[in-house]
C-alpha cells in the first residue's frame, strides 16, 4: 500500500477552536476521478487542527490542504488529484487531529472513511502487428497490444472507450476503421494508408479522455511503405507528373530507400516505348546496349528513349517480406512521360555525280544530303551525320596483274561524319595511268541522321538513314591518253524513318590505310 | 562523245570566264615553316586556299582532321634535276618490275568559302614523297576546284599555287 499525503498544515492555535475527539459526518464527493483534481469537503465536529491522509492500493493521490479551514470546528476542505494511472479502487481517508497539547497531552482517535476512485489509467502500447503497411493497401485486423484499454462496455462518461488515431510523419491522417477494443490489452482495427503516401513512419495514438498518450513507448514506430518513382530526386509518379524529356536524354529513375533493415524481395520496372540502356559512339566503335531484364529488377533504372512519343508509361512495383504477414507487394507507381524529339524528318539526296578527273587523276563521286526537321520545343540539340561504308576497289594493271582492296563495313573515317542539317560526301578514288589500265569501284554507304539532345548524359538517337552506292568502271585510253567512264554512277534509296536503327561498328574507322591493308 | 567533251570544255571555259573574267575564283598559296630540313625530319607544308571572287565557292576537303591536304590537292615535287618524284604513300604494287604506290580511296567533304575567306590546311610532305636524299626540292600544289557544267559531268579545275623550295641536308 502506498500512503501518500501531507502533514497537517498547521498546528497552531485556531480561534474559537475546541480540541476534542474528531467526528466525521460526511465526505463529499465520495467519488474521485483518476487524473482529475477534486475539491473535497469533510463535515463533522472537532475538526480543529485536523488533517486528512489518503491512502490507495495503487498509485498516489495528491492532496492540497486548505490554507485556512472553512470552519475550524465543523468543516475542512482540500483538493485531491488521484494519479492518472490509478485504476478504479477504494481510497481510505483518515481524518486525525494531531497531538495538540503543548505538553504532548492526550491524543484523539483518527476517524476513517472511504471514497471511490474511478480509474481511467493511461493506456500503453506494447506492440502493433503488422506494423508495416503498404500505401494504397488495406490491412484488416491490425492488432495493438498494450494495457489499460477501455472496452465499450466498461466505458463511462469520465473514461470513454479507448480510441486510436494514426498520423503519418508528413502530418497526414491515416484512415482507421472498424476499431474494436477487444479487451483491456488488445485493440483491433483496419488501416488503409492512401496510395499517394510516401515511405514514412506513423505515430499511433491510443487514448481515453482525459488520459491520452501516444506510442512513444514503442521501440519501432509503424512504417508506411509508399511507392514513388523519382526523377532527378523529385516524385514524378501519379498524382505528380514528370517534366517533358527529350529522346536520347538520360532517364535515371530512382525510388525512395526502404526503411533500415528492410529488404525488397522483388523489384520490377515496366518501361514502355523503345528504350535502350546505352549507346556511346566513338570513332573506334559503337554498339547499342539493350535494356535487359536484370536492369529492370533493381531499385533504380537508367535508360534512354529512342523515339519521341507522348505519353510513355513507366511503372514500378516492389515486394517485401513483412514479419507476421508474409510477402507483400506494393501498388504500382506509374508515371507518364512526354518524350519530345525532332519530327517531320526528311532527307533529300542531291548533287549525285560521278566524274573523272584528269589532274589529279581520280574517279570522283559526290552526293549531298539536305535534311529538314521540326526541332522539339527545347531546341538545344544537335543534328549529327554518321556514315557507314563498305568499299571494294579493283585495279587492273597494264602488265596483266591487279589488286582488289576492300574496307568495312565500318565507320566512314570519323565520328561524327558531320553536324547540322546538310552534309556532303565526296568520295574520291585515285587512279594512276602510269601503270593502271582499268579501275572499278563498288562501294556501299549508309548515311544516318541522328539527333543529340545535348543534355547531361544524353546520347544521339537515330532519325533515319539513307543507303547509297557509288560504282563504276573507268578505263585508260592510251591513244587519247585519257580516262573513259565505262559505266557507273551514284544511286540512293529513299530516306527511311521507319523505326530507324542505330549505326553500329567495330574495329575503328575505314580509312585509306585500313583499305590498303586489305588488298589482295 | 566528242560533242559532249567539246561542250564540257566550252562550259568549263565559260565557267572559268564567269568566275572572274578568266581568272580563278580562288588563289592557292603554300609556305613551309622549315625551308631547310635535315634528312628524316618531318617537313610540313601549309596550304591556304582563298576565295578571291565576289561569290561563294565550295572546296573539297579531306574528311577528318587537318593535315590531309593531299586529299584535295595535287602535289608536285621536283628534285634538283627537275625530275618529278612519285608518291610513296598508299599500297606498294609491283608492275613491270617497278614499284608504284596505289592510292586508296577516301571520303571528302565540301566546305564553303565566302568571298574573302580562306581555308588553311597542311600536309606532311616527307610522308608523301621520298626526301631522303640531300638536295633542293621544288614544291607546287594544285587545288582541284570543282567546276559544274550544265548538262555534262563536272570537272576539276587545277588552280596552282606558288612554288617553294625546300632544302634537305644531311
Overall geometry of chain A comes to: rod-shaped
Q: Tell me the Rg of chain B in angstroms.
A: 18 Å
Give the oligomeric state: heterodimer
Proportion of residues in extended strands of chain A: over 45%
Distance between the termini of chain B: 53 Å
Strand segment count of chain A: 39
Low-confidence stretches of chain A: 1-13
The figure for the number of domains of chain A is 4
CATH architecture of chain B: Sandwich
**Which percent range fits the helix content of chain A?**
under 10%
Largest sheet of chain A: 7 strands, mixed
**Helix count of chain A?**
1
Structural class of chain A: mainly beta
**Beta strands of chain B, count:** 11
Backbone shape of chain B: globular
Walk me through what this model shows.
Chain A is mainly β and about 525 residues long. Chain A has one helix at about 510-515; strands spanning about 1-5, 25-30, 30-35, 40-45, 50-55, 60-65, 75-80, 90-95, 110-120, 125-130, 130-135, 140-145, 165-170, 175-185, 185-190, 200-210, 210-215, 225, 230, 235, 245, 250-255, 265-270, 275-280, 290, 300-305, 310-320, 325-330, 335-340, 345-360, 360-375, 380-395, 400-410, 420, 420-430, 435-450, 460-475, 480-490, 510. Chain A has 4 domains: about 1-120, Sandwich (Immunoglobulin-like), CATH 2.60.40.10; about 125-225, Immunoglobulins (Immunoglobulin-like), CATH 2.60.40; about 230-340, Immunoglobulin-like; about 345-515. Chain A contains 1 helix and 39 strands. Chain B has about 170 residues and is mainly beta. Chain B has a single domain (about 1-170), classed as Sandwich (Immunoglobulin-like). Chain B has a 4-stranded mixed β-sheet with strand order 2-11-10-5, with helices on one face. In chain B, strands 1-3-9 form a 3-stranded antiparallel β-sheet. The radius of gyration of chain B is 18 Å and the shape is globular. Residues about 1-20 of chain B have low confidence and may be disordered. The interface of A and B includes residues 413 and 441 of A.
Amino acid at each position: 500500500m502506498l500512503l501518500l499525503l501531507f502533514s497537517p498544515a498547521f498546528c497552531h492555535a485556531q480561534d474559537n477552536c475546541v480540541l476534542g475527539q474528531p467526528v466525521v459526518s460526511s465526505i463529499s464527493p465520495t467519488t474521485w476521478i483518476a487524473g482529475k483534481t477534486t475539491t473535497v469537503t469533510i463535515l463533522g465536529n472537532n475538526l480543529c487542527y485536523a488533517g486528512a491522509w489518503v491512502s490507495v492500493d495503487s498509485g498516489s493521490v495528491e492532496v492540497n490542504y486548505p490554507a485556512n479551514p472553512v470552519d475550524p470546528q465543523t468543516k475542512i476542505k482540500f483538493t485531491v488529484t488521484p494519479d492518472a494511472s490509478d485504476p478504479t479502487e477504494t481510497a481510505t481517508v483518515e481524518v486525525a487531529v494531531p497531538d495538540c497539547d503543548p505538553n504532548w497531552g492526550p491524543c484523539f482517535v483518527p476517524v476513517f472513511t472511504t471514497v471511490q476512485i474511478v480509474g481511467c489509467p493511461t493506456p500503453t502500447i506494447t506492440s502493433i502487428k503488422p506494423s508495416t503497411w503498404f500505401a494504397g493497401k488495406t490491412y484488416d485486423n491490425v492488432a495493438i497490444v498494450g494495457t489499460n484499454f477501455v472496452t465499450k462496455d466498461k466505458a463511462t462518461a469520465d473514461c470513454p472507450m479507448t480510441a486510436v488515431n494514426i498520423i503519418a510523419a508528413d502530418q497526414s491522417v491515416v484512415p482507421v476503421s472498424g476499431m474494436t477494443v477487444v479487451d483491456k490489452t488488445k485493440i483491433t482495427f483496419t488501416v488503409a494508408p492512401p496510395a499517394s503516401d510516401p515511405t514514412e513512419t506513423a505515430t499511433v495514438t491510443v487514448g481515453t479522455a482525459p488520459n491520452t498518450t501516444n506510442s512513444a513507448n514503442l521501440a519501432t514506430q509503424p512504417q508506411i511503405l509508399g511507392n514513388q518513382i523519382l526523377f532527378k530526386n523529385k516524385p514524378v509518379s501519379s498524382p505528380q507528373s514528370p517534366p517533358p524529356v527529350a529522346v536520347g536524354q538520360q532517364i535515371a529513375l530512382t525510388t525512395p530507400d526502404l526503411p533500415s533493415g528492410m529488404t525488397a524481395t522483388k523489384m520490377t520496372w515496366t518501361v514502355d516505348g523503345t528504350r535502350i540502356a546505352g549507346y556511346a559512339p566513338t570513332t573506334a566503335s559503337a554498339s547499342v546496349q539493350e535494356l535487359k531484364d536484370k536492369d529492370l529488377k533493381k531499385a533504380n533504372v537508367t535508360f534512354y528513349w529512342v523515339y519521341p512519343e507522348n505519353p510513355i508509361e513507366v511503372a514500378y512495383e516492389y515486394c517485401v517480406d513483412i514479419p507476421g504477414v508474409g510477402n507483400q507487394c506494393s501498388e504500382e507507381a506509374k508515371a507518364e512521360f512526354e518524350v519530345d524529339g525532332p519530327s517531320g524528318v526528311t532527307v533529300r539526296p542531291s548533287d549525285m555525280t560521278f566524274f573523272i578527273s584528269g589532274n589529279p587523276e581520280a574517279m570522283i563521286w559526290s552526293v549531298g544530303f539536305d535534311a529538314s526537321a521540326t526541332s522539339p520545343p527545347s531546341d538545344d540539340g544537335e543534328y549529327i551525320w554518321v556514315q557507314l561504308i563498305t568499299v571494294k576497289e579493283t585495279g587492273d594493271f597494264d602488265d596483266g596483274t591487279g589488286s582488289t582492296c576492300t574496307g568495312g563495313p565500318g565507320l566512314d573515317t570519323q565520328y561524327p561524319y558531320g553536324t547540322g542539317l546538310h552534309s556532303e560526301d565526296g568520295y574520291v578514288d585515285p587512279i594512276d595511268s602510269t601503270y593502271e589500265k582499268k579501275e572499278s569501284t563498288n562501294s556501299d554507304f549508309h548515311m544516318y541522321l541522328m539527333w543529340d539532345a545535348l543534355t547531361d548524359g544524353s546520347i544521339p538517337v537515330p532519325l533515319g538513314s539513307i543507303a547509297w552506292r557509288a560504282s563504276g568502271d573507268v578505263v585508260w585510253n592510251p591513244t587519247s591518253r585519257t580516262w573513259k567512264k565505262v559505266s557507273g554512277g551514284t544511286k540512293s534509296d529513299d530516306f527511311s524513318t521507319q523505326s530507324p536503327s542505330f549505326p553500329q561498328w567495330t574495329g575503328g574507322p575505314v580509312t585509306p590505310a585500313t583499305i590498303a591493308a586489305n588488298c589482295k | 562523245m566528242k560533242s559532249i567533251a567539246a561542250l564540257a570544255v566550252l562550259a568549263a571555259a565559260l565557267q572559268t570566264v564567269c568566275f572572274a573574267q578568266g581568272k580563278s575564283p580562288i588563289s592557292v598559296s603554300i609556305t613551309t615553316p622549315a625551308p631547310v630540313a635535315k634528312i628524316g625530319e618531318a617537313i610540313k607544308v601549309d596550304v591556304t586556299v582563298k576565295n578571291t571572287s565576289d561569290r561563294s565557292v565550295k572546296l573539297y576537303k579531306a574528311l577528318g582532321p587537318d593535315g590531309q591536304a593531299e586529299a584535295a590537292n595535287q602535289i608536285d615535287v621536283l628534285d634538283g634535276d627537275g625530275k618529278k618524284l612519285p608518291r610513296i604513300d598508299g599500297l606498294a604494287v609491283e608492275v613491270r618490275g617497278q614499284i608504284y604506290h596505289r592510292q586508296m580511296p577516301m571520303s571528302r567533304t565540301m566546305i564553303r568559302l565566302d568571298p574573302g575567306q580562306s581555308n588553311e590546311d597542311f600536309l606532311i610532305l616527307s610522308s608523301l614523297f621520298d626526301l631522303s636524299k640531300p638536295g633542293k626540292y621544288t614544291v607546287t600544289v594544285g587545288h582541284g576546284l570543282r567546276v559544274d557544267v550544265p548538262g555534262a559531268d563536272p570537272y576539276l579545275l587545277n588552280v596552282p599555287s606558288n612554288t617553294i623550295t625546300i632544302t634537305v641536308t644531311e
